[in-house]
Amino acid sequence: MVQSRTKLLYDPDMTSSSHFGFTHFGFREVPEGDKQRLVGGVFDAVANRYDLMNDVLSGGMHRLWKAALVDWLRPRPGLQMIDVAGGTGDIASRVLDRVNGQADITVCDINVSMLNEGRRRAPGVPIHWLAGDAERLPCPDCSFDAYSIAFGIRNVTHIDAALREARRVLKPGGRFLCLEFSAVILPGLDTLYDLYSFKLMPLLGDVIGGNRDAYQYLAESIRQFPDQQKFAGMIADAGFSQVTFRNQSAGIAAIHSGWRI
Ligand SMILES: C[S@@+](CC[C@H](N)C(=O)[O-])C[C@H]1O[C@@H](n2cnc3c(N)ncnc32)[C@H](O)[C@@H]1O
Predict the structure, then answer these.
(1) d(CA 202, CA 194)
(2) Is 231 inside any structural domain?
């Protein structure tokens, strides 16, 4: 029997982003080599409305979650930082605001449409815009004091490879922070959240963002991502120390922290 190259799949226990040459793209299982192109298609399609849609879909909550990440980072003037899967540079701008522009920040993203949108929105903001893959960062070892990734790692094909890269580019003593959608911990809220994610979100994505499929993918990719504890284990397996996490909005999102020692 010939195996279908694209299958429908929902495996909430899947902790690896990839197995037997296949990986998940939302609830679909696709050949590993196809995922990056499919993810690229999603972000090409939404780049010019990405920031607006973030506000609409999260009811502005993503701003609080990103502020919580910057609070936990406690950036100091002179910080050398990379924000991976940094998209339009939202995290980078927030960190720069916090230190009055006194930080050296690189935004790295695989998608040039997202980087161009960021450049267009923030002319003159001192950010280095870098095209690159989280799994193979175009940066030397031990380059940064801090590495952040917000709502990016679940789109990466090999999460373990991206985590190892994070560690590689951090200096000893460097800080890893990841903001990602996670598992809701409040009974009852999970049912409401499912309704919202699978019914309302694709509808809003269609009406406001002009792309239903991209927001269906968003909902599905969130459910496929490992929960707080499992993801903390993956970060530790990549060699980080003192791995902890803080839930945001009852686990709708979580921020994970680790240190390279
Ligand atoms: C949901 S957006 C998040 C953007 C930004 N961090 C934010 O919080 O607003 C996800 C980003 O991940 C990027 N991305 C996906 N796969 C990537 C990879 N392998 N390496 C680097 N960036 C990637 C996408 O191009 C997209 O810009």
Answers:
(1) 12
(2) yes
**What are the φ/ψ torsions at residue 144 (nearest 5 degrees)?**
-130, 150
| Rounded distance from Cα 230 to ligand 1 centre (Å) | 21
User: Residue 188 sits in which domain range?
Assistant: 7-259
* Secondary structure element (H or E) that encloses residue 37, with its range: helix 32-46
Res. 229: pLDDT tops 80: yes
Q: What is the pLDDT of residues 43-53, one digit of tens each?
A: 887 788 888 88
For a pocket test of ligand 1, which of 37, 43, 217 has the largest count of ligand atoms closer than 8 A to its C-beta? 43
Pocket test for ligand 1, best of 46, 57, 114, 217 (most atoms within 8 A of CB): 114
The residue whose CA has the least distance to atom 27 of ligand 1 is 87
The structure's pTM equals 0.89
The pair of structure tokens assigned to 168 is: 């590689």
**The pLDDT value given to residue 209:** 78
Q: How many Å lie between the centroid of ligand 1 and the Cα of residue 199? A: 24
Q: What is the CATH number of the domain that holds 188?
A: 3.40.50.150
Q: How far apart are the C-alpha atoms of 24 and 87, rounded to whole Å?
A: 21
Q: Is residue 1 part of a domain?
A: no
Residue 241 domain flag: yes
Question: SS3 for 249?
Answer: helix
Convert the pLDDT of each residue in 116-136 to its tens digit.
Answer: 999 998 888 899 999 999 999
Is position 254 within any domain?
yes
Split into its structural domains, the chain has a count of 1
